[in-house]
Specification:
With 231 residues, the protein is an alpha/beta fold. 34% of the residues lie in helices and 28% in strands. Pfam families: ABC_tran.
């Protein structure tokens, strides 16, 4: 079943009289449980597509459906509610809250969703254990390595049991070994939970973890280079 469907999505940015076409009629669907890499050179539209799917931005034209729901029919508050309960995010620069511990960063989405104290604690401890950071629960981001911060971010993205996790260049600020650890954790959690993962990258080592690759070029899907990896 499709978790995400985009149909003829375009996105045009205007600066004065100049127009930039970030997306040019993108149509694709992503099934529940997929672990998909969006690949392409800088400026190909990867991040823009993730932002639209994540309800952080709206397309200039076209349709986005999440579990069959037409997102274009929702107002700003409804999109925010959908995003809060359905979508987890992993960002290139971690985006952890500096004054909160690893435990508190993972707990925050649960607090915002009104989860009870006992359920919050059980879920946070479960996720920190899943990403190998149980012993670092009380450390703030500035006391964690880059790899550890990104693992906290992965745990936070999964805290509310989302339909999908969107990751924008999740290993770009990590060395090879930490990048490998993060991707292995994401892939394992994808397999264990069935959550759909959609991640943008230009790193061939990261692409090798994907079960499906969607190539973007000049704001369009390049069907000649979108495939299931053989590695």
């Amino acid at each position: 079943m499709s978790a995400i469907e985009v149909e003829q999505i375009t996105k045009t940015y205007k600066i004065g009289t100049q127009e930039t076409h970030a997306l040019r009629g993108v149509t694709a669907s992503f099934n529940e449980g997929e672990f998909t890499a969006l690949v392409g050179p800088s400026g190909s539209g990867k991040t823009t597509l993730l932002q639209i799917i994540g309800c952080l931005d709206q397309p200039t034209s076209g349709a986005l459906r999440i579990k069959g729901q037409d997102v274009s029919r929702l107002n700003a508050d409804q999109r925010a509610d959908l995003r809060k309960g359905t979508i987890g995010f992993v960002f290139q620069f971690f985006a952890l809250i500096p004054g909160l511990t690893a435990y508190e960063n993972v707990e925050l989405p649960l607090l915002l969703n009104g989860e009870g104290t006992a359920a919050r604690k059980a879920r946070v401890l479960e996720l920190l254990d899943a990403v190998g950071l149980s012993e670092r629960a009380n450390h703030r981001p500035d006391q964690l390595s880059g790899g550890e911060q990104q693992r906290v971010a992965v745990a936070r993205a999964l805290s509310v049991r989302p339909l999908m996790v969107l990751a924008d260049e999740p290993t770009a600020n990590l060395d090879t070994e930490n990048g490998k650890q993060v991707m292995e954790i994401m892939r394992r959690l994808n397999q264990e939970t069935g959550v759909t993962f959609l991640f943008a990258t230009h790193d061939p080592r990261v692409v090798s973890y994907a079960t499906r690759v969607v190539q973007l070029r000049d704001g369009r899907i390049d069907d000649n280079h979108s495939a299931i990896p053989t590695v």
